[in-house]
Design brief:
This protein has a single domain, classed as 6 Propeller (Neuraminidase). The chain has 1 helix and 26 strands. A 4-stranded antiparallel sheet has the order 1-26-25-24. It has a 4-stranded antiparallel sheet with strand order 3-4-6-7, with no helix packed on it. Strands 8-9-10-11 form a 4-stranded antiparallel sheet, with no helix packed on it. The longest helix has 11 residues. The relative contact order is 0.18.
């Protein structure tokens, strides 16, 4: 099957039309009154969010972000990615400097950026992942964590305070993409509260979307690319000149479900989003930045906060930008960000989430090692399809 390969659209005009606080009310009005050009969500980075961490704590590769029912922002990072010779001197025996130490793996921030909760790590009742990957807070405010270490074949579920609830699968136990009990190197999960189901991007070792019962964890169904039965046979490296692969490549990096019951799968190394119905029926696909090789362009997605979820925000860690897509057509409307370490830039932007006010949160892996907040300003027109870093006061 041939996919739809969207073309970047240049929007006309400049000017924001909404202000913070009126954003949700003006989203529909702005679209109705706009004349010419393309209306897109507009953001500016908040360089002072979050507030500094206590206890000389710092973050390692920050591999997941989620927002709960109170608009608290949850992140998860990898302590082991900090270098004890120059980043985490306090872990040395004796300490070699007064700073720093790895923060606990799971951190919770309130909307103002205050650290209000932290926990995580090995425990007697469960197997902490060799390499944690992804964090999702469900509609009951329970916290789900995957793992993509080479021997991670399981998913963990905790209360918001870190009390253990459930482990699905066992480390070192996997038999491929049609295993009904174990996983292999899960990227992340998403929750369908209407159907009480969990969608698993299973992901780095396996090549599938798996659907579980949210209470028991029993697997109900699974599928591969185009809704095919998963096949773990080797797939050649992605080339934009080749026919689209009939199976997902590793990593299959996200499986997010929209309000209207469509499942959006991030086939990261194939530069594509595939869309399915809840039962795995293939709907459509789109290729994003299709010339991207190596780690690919489609790392994670989040939906805009309006009831129709008109837009998709797509984290592209290779190109170090966030794409804004029309959800109905999967056309890229604009992008923002750039490679770098300053606020509004990215180094390995990995995960993305949206709060109830439309603000965006991103985390960065590799040497990025941070979380950023982008304040939603409403809909507006942009002068260029590539906005660059959305610095406060800058014209886009």
């Amino acid at each position: 099957m041939k996919g739809i390969r969207p073309v970047y659209t240049v929007a006309a005009g400049i000017a924001l039309i909404c202000v913070l606080g009126l954003a949700s009310a003006c989203m529909d009005d702005a679209a109705e009154t706009a004349v010419g050009g393309v209306e897109v969500p507009m953001f500016e980075v908040d360089p002072f969010w979050p507030k500094p961490l206590p206890n000389h704590w710092i973050l390692g590769s920050t591999i997941g972000v989620s927002v709960d029912s109170r608009d608290h922002v949850w992140i998860i990072h990898r302590q082991a990615t900090l270098n004890p010779s120059n980043e985490s001197n306090l872990v040395n025996d004796p300490p070699t400097a007064r700073c720093c130490a790895p923060a606990p793996p799971v951190l919770e921030f309130d909307p103002a950026g205050n650290l209000v909760g932290f926990w995580g790590g090995p425990g007697d009742a469960y197997d902490w992942p060799q390499s944690n990957h992804g964090i999702t807070v469900d509609h009951m405010d329970n916290v789900w964590i995957g793992g993509n270490g080479v021997n991670d074949s399981h998913i963990l579920k905790f209360t918001r305070s870190g009390d253990f609830l459930l482990q699905l699968g066992e480390p070192f136990q996997r038999s491929g993409s049609n295993d009904a009990e174990n996983f292999w190197r899960v990227a992340e999960v998403s929750i369908d509260p209407e159907a009480n189901e969990v969608y698993v991007a299973d992901g780095y070792g396996n090549k599938r979307v798996a659907v579980l019962d949210v209470q028991t964890g029993v697997m109900k169904r699974h599928w591969g690319a185009y809704g095919n039965r998963p096949d773990d046979s080797p797939i050649p490296a992605y080339s934009p000149d080749d026919p689209p692969a009939q199976q997902f490549r590793s990593p299959m990096h996200c499986a997010q479900i929209s309000h209207d019951g469509l499942v959006y799968a991030c086939d990261r190394a194939s530069d594509r989003i595939q869309v399915f119905e809840r039962d795995g029926t293939f709907v459509r696909e789109a290729f994003i930045a299709p010339e991207t090789l190596g780690s690919g362009s489609v790392w994670d997605i989040a939906f805009s906060h309006d009831p129709e979820q008109r837009f998709i925000y797509l984290a592209d860690g290779s190109n170090k930008i966030v794409h804004v897509l029309d959800r109905e057509t999967l056309e890229v409307l604009t992008t923002f960000g750039d490679g770098g370490r300053q606020p509004g830039q990215f180094y390995g932007v990995h995960s993305i989430a949206v709060d109830s006010q439309g603000n965006l949160y991103t985390t960065e892996t590799y040497e990025g090692k941070r979380v950023q907040r982008f304040v939603f300003l409403g809909l507006g027109r942009v002068a260029s399809s590539d906005q660059g870093p959305p610095w406060p006061g800058a014209e886009n």
